[in-house]
Design brief:
Helices cover 46% and strands 14% of the residues. It is an alpha/beta fold and 238 residues long. It has a single domain, classed as Glycerol-3-phosphate (1)-acyltransferase (3-Layer(aba) Sandwich). Strands 1-7-6-2-5-3-4 form a 7-stranded mixed β-sheet, with helices on both faces. Helix 5 links the parallel strand 3 (90-94) and strand 4 (113-115). Helix 1 packs across helix 3 (30-47), helix 2 (14-27) packs parallel to helix 5 and helix 3 crosses helix 4 (77-84). The longest helix has 25 residues, at 213-237.
Length: 238
């Protein structure tokens, strides 16, 4: 219902949005495209009665060339980052969504990378491309759980392989905790909802260089779960 509400309230502008996202990505590059996508995300959230509460933006590394690792709650997650994140990023997404309207244009404009989780060779190529781009100063977002948890604010295990690009690029890792991001698109409702995102302290290469990717995954997961637990306790205390 919320997706329908967003579309209905902006139906006259959708063709223009799609064209401009594609045009900016092709002619102006990722920075210009991201700025416009951010604007559209904010419009969509207002139209869909969703408020984003972001904290911890001071933890975002000053220098570009880092990887954002959030928990994965639902189809809405990426919109949280388009709305709240201050700097351009690209992302890795499962290949099944690459031809969806709007998603297709956004992925093209930001040069996002589709991944086939069943194809090991293609997955290795994704890691290679992402490593090169992060090393060259691009920021990336990837959901290390691989699929949404479908358990509300509880997490699946994070896959160690998702961290290989950050390790190979010796890049900062930025853990992020999403809370109630499953509500907007997974619940059949248009009630007002607040989605929270907490940008946690980055983990720099010097801190994780002697760890395996599985150990890094466990560390990131524990920090996200701790942040979610703190928010949950604060909510209960009210």
């Amino acid at each position: 219902m919320r997706i329908a509400l967003m579309i209905i309230r902006n139906i006259l502008f959708v063709p223009y949005y799609l064209f401009k996202i594609y045009w900016l990505g092709k002619h102006k590059g990722i920075d210009a495209a991201f700025s416009y996508i951010k604007k559209i995300a904010k419009i969509a959230n207002r139209s869909g009665r969703v408020k984003i509460e972001a904290k911890g933006l001071e933890n975002v590394p000053e220098k570009n060339g880092f990887v954002i690792f959030p928990n994965h709650q639902g189809l809405y997650d990426v919109l949280v980052f388009f709305d709240s994140f201050p700097r351009p990023f690209s992302f890795v997404a499962k290949k099944e969504v690459k031809n969806f309207p709007i998603v297709k244009q956004v992925m093209h404009a930001l040069k996002a990378i589709p991944i086939d989780r069943k194809d090991l060779r293609q997955s290795m190529n994704v890691i290679k491309e992402m490593t090169e781009r992060v090393a060259n100063g691009e920021n990336f977002l990837i959901f290390a759980e691989g699929t949404r948890s479908k358990m509300g604010n509880k997490m699946n295990e994070m896959k160690g392989g998702s961290f290989k690009s950050a390790v190979k690029a010796k890049a900062p890792i930025l853990p992020c905790a999403l809370m109630d991001s499953f509500v907007p698109f997974d619940e059949n409702s248009i009630r007002k909802v607040t989605v929270k995102v907490r940008y946690l302290k980055p983990i720099y290469y010097e801190e994780y260089k002697d760890m395996s990717t599985s150990e890094i995954a466990a560390l990131v997961k524990s920090r996200i779960e701790e942040a979610i637990a703190l928010e949950t306790d604060a909510r209960i205390a009210k």
